[in-house]
């Protein structure tokens, strides 16, 4: 990977200045997990904050939120259990550095070179999840891809970033189907853990990671869409505001991650 640029005239975005950030007020409740209905935020993992996590402290940016969407989570759990028991290995794929994630595709991305406004192609497996099909049919936006992801017990999806957020061209929605309470996602300086049945999204242009330290698997429906006013209208306005500030800070956070001395060792 290369250093990110996005400033004026192609100048590199600055790496976060930890000295200036150290003077900023810290969020309340540093060591508490952020849950729905809980205003406290956790900002540290094992007592240590990494350089790119500091870029969002004091920024005032909302990094994630639940969406006003109502899936039939009971039906989805039941249908997934039947699918998981019957689907052969060749219809599952693995990704992630430690091989602990598997995916079952319900909608594949269109072939490369096609127009970006073209939606994904349903796979035969989608027919085994009618509750998901019904849920997606209610979307008034282009669905680019959809798959079920599984994180194994003890699995970790290491720090990375994606060009996905409500203020960008594409966004990723997440619907927890089966999630142990210990599983969590780190976005910037925040730790989030949304309960089963709650659709949520985040600004994934900031470095983020996912871990499941429990003894149970984590099952999440991932839906990639083209952002539009319909989906933004189902999230708090603050989650898609301040696009220029988000670009500057996420670029700085990406640079901080790319230039982290321990990154190469951690990913080999």
TrEMBL record:
SUPFAM superfamilies (alphabetical): Clavaminate synthase-like
Domain of life from the UniProt record: Bacteria
InterPro entries: Asp/Arg/Pro-Hydrxlase, IPNS-like_sf
Annotated Aspartyl/asparaginy/proline hydroxylase domain residues: 75-226
UniProt-recorded name of the protein: Aspartyl/asparaginyl beta-hydroxylase domain-containing protein
Classification lineage: Bacteria, Pseudomonadati, Pseudomonadota, Alphaproteobacteria, Rhodospirillales
């Amino acid at each position: 990977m290369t250093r990110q640029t996005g400033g004026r005239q192609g100048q590199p975005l600055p790496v976060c200045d930890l000295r200036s950030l150290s003077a900023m007020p810290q969020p309340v409740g540093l060591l508490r997990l952020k849950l729905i209905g809980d205003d406290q935020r956790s900002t540290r993992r094992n007592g240590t904050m990494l350089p790119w996590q500091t870029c969002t402290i004091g920024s005032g940016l909302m990094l994630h939120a639940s969406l006003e969407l109502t899936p039939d989570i009971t039906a989805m759990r039941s249908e997934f259990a039947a699918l998981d028991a019957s689907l052969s290995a060749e219809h599952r794929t693995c990704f992630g550095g430690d091989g602990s994630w598997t995916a079952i595709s319900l909608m594949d991305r269109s072939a490369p070179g096609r127009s970006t406004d073209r939606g994904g192609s349903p796979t035969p497996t989608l027919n085994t999840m009618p509750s998901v099909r019904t849920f997606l049919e209610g979307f008034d936006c282009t669905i680019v891809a959809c798959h079920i992801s599984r994180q194994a017990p003890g699995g970790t999806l290491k720090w990375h970033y994606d060009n996905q957020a409500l203020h960008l061209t594409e966004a990723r929605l997440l619907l927890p189907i089966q999630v142990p309470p210990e599983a969590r996602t780190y976005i910037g300086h925040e730790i989030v853990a949304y309960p089963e049945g709650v659709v949520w999204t985040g600004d994934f242009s900031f470095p983020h990671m996912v871990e499941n330290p429990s003894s149970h698997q984590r099952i999440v429906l991932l839906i990639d869409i083209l952002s539009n006013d319909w989906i933004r209208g189902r999230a708090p306005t603050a989650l898609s505001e301040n696009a220029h500030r988000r670009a500057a800070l996420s670029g700085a956070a990406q640079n901080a991650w790319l230039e982290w001395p321990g990154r190469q060792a951690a990913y080999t």
